[in-house]
Model the fold of this input.
Amino acid sequence: MKLFATTAVLGILAGGSAMAATDYTVGIANVGSGLFGGGTAIELYATTDSSIKLVQTYVLHQKDFTGNLASPLILALDPARDFVYVAYTGLSQPNVVGFKITPTGLDLQWEKELATGDSSLQGATLTAGPGYVIENTYPAPGVGTWVHVLDEAGAEILSDYDDGGGGVWVISGQVDATKTFYYSCRNTTSSPPATLVSVYAFKVGEDVHTWSTKPAASTHNPVYVQSVCN
Done:
């Protein structure tokens, strides 16, 4: 979970010479003043070797279940440094909003409901990778974790869920930087930490379930599990 994220962009002149680097930072304003400890707006800053400039204060003009403007709760920045995912309060469950980062401001691309089973985050997290975001959500106590992987267009490209039907519960999910492998972090109970990792070939559109999809490899090795999951 991140409340503050950073992105650096290097401009290139038409003649081929490099301009000064500009670092863009995205943060949540007035953290703690909004619903569930959220903020009131998203702020985009540009930092150069000579100045720090507020580029934009972005307020999502959309009301949540309280009738007030939606509060930004958490955010995650793509490693490519051109996209940010923000979770806001919503009508029944939080919403994830995808923004493209530009030199002039945040450009809203899409919005999708975050399946937490409640109006709050319920412990849900966002983790951004190259061109995707991982949603680890906890829709109800004791039923396990729902993992959803979305691309920058907001489309779900992989999902993972286990509620003990195969003798294990999903704790969290991870994807490697090249989107070659998906790591399903699991336990024999619905509570963390993970004690098992099942590794799958990353396939767009895959639904990973213990009883229907065979992993490429699995291990209980505690050092390996800790290195991937915890």
User: Anything to note?
Assistant: Residues 168 and 188 are 4 Å apart (CA to CA). The radius of gyration is 19 Å.
